[in-house]
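Hello Y.,

Per our agreement to keep a running log of every chain we model this quarter, I'm adding this entry. I've kept the format consistent with earlier entries: sequence first, then predicted structure.
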Amino acid sequence: MSADAQHPAPILVTGPGGRVGTGLRRYWGDRYPVRLFDLQPLRPLGAHEEVLQGSIGDPAAFSAAARGCRAIVHLAATADEADFLEHLVPDNVIGLYNAFEAARLQGVRRFVFASTVQILLGYPKGTFVRDTDPIRPVSRYACTKVLGEALGRYYHDRHGLEVVCLRLGAVPHPDRDDPQRGGIYLSPRDCAGFTAGAVDADPAPEDGYAVLSLVSRGGAGIRDTKRATRLLGYEPQDGPDA
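Predicted structure for the entry above:
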């Protein structure tokens, strides 16, 4: 076994203390060596986790956290509608830019970006929506995720970064499961499975830049999830009534 196989490069996960990050850590187990970067102190779940406390608003600390990583899974953001200038701009715009710059400066190969299905929720109820359909965001929060997808396109084309944008459905906290989400429900287990596929897919999906909608079973009737299953190699296990 090679030294690289014995000591694989870690994955940097930002915002691991949130509801999505908590689910990833739980369902991934020790699948990867991970470096956790969060504003709040966290307790590692095992020897496979390294914890760094810091802010995505600090570009130097962010870049240092990304050093030596093979992928970034960028979850950190203000996750719901909030005051645009006070919360969304610092966290979802400036912090997002710092994330892409950290990847570029440290030579990270792959960037997995947590986007949102809210980008497409402006269509009439029951409409079958594909990832390639024009965006119709329903919130300012969703608009910041549109920016993230656009930055991903730019950093892929300009700097060769492999980027997978995951339009996440409604992911509850794994300890407070609320399955009443209809067609946009995404279970913590399915979110973790799809995200692992985005990290591991080889070659990178869609020649290095992909935007994929993720929902659990029951959402596929109005959201096109077949592409995500095909490209990421993960079949949803849960549904809104599971």
